[in-house]
Amino acid sequence: MENRSSLVIAFLTGVIVTLGVALLNQNTSYLPAAYADGGSGAQGIFMVTNNGTSGQGKDTLFMVESTESGKRLAIYEYAGGRLELGAVRNIDYDLRFESWSKKGNEQKPSIQEQKRATEKNDDDKKSKR
Q1: pTM exceeds cut of 0.70
Q2: DSSP string, 58-92
Q3: More confident residue, 107 or 122
């Protein structure tokens, strides 16, 4: 059960990062714009679906709304012919972190370590010129 929870957390983290990158690149997107129903009211909404894994029996829709008033993530589940709202969260503050992990699950290398290594590499390149 713990492995499955870790897998779900890893997947959701990947989805959030992907959606965050898509939001940050909204004005200079490398992907074609997608609009629900092609209506003007759909601007600022980005959606991704996920088919349920075997045994789970439900599909998931992740919807991110980006407006001047903020960014929100909504997660819907479709199972047994029913669409249900699973959760909604304002992600404005989530996206301000450089890095975030639960205590004891810190990412390696850290952002600071990556920054130092990159700066050292840049300095080494400059000194070789």
Answers
A1: no
A2: -EEEEEEEEETTEEEEEEEEEETTEEEEEEEEE-T
A3: 122
